[in-house]
Amino acid sequence: MAWHETLNEWLASSAGVINAIVAILIVVGAALIGEAAVDVDAFFGLGLILGGAAGVLVAVLVCGSLAIIIDIRNLLARRDRGVSIAPPPADPSS
User: Partner of 55 for a Cys bridge, out of 5, 18, 27, 28, CB 3.0 to 4.6 A?
Assistant: First the structure.
């Protein structure tokens, strides 16, 4: 196996961890932006909550889509290696 194939396999296997880190950064970043955007003392903490909620929504959409793509890639890789994805058929004699 060539070095670029090894690097590609390593990057593909670490994509799930990178995806989780990106999701956390999106939520924290949106919460901090929301807190900075609401600069009224009467709404203490509201910007943090609304920003965090918006961050969760964006993280679910972006990172959820990436997670589905990563899962599809893993299934296709298992299929290429000859590993069965579907359960074996039921025995008709039983």
Answer: 27
The count of domains in the chain is 1
pLDDT at 45 over 80: yes
Mean pLDDT of 76-84: 73
Whether residue 57 lies inside any domain: the answer is: yes
Q: 31-42 pLDDT, tens per residue?
A: 999 988 877 766
Structure tokens at 90: 């039921």
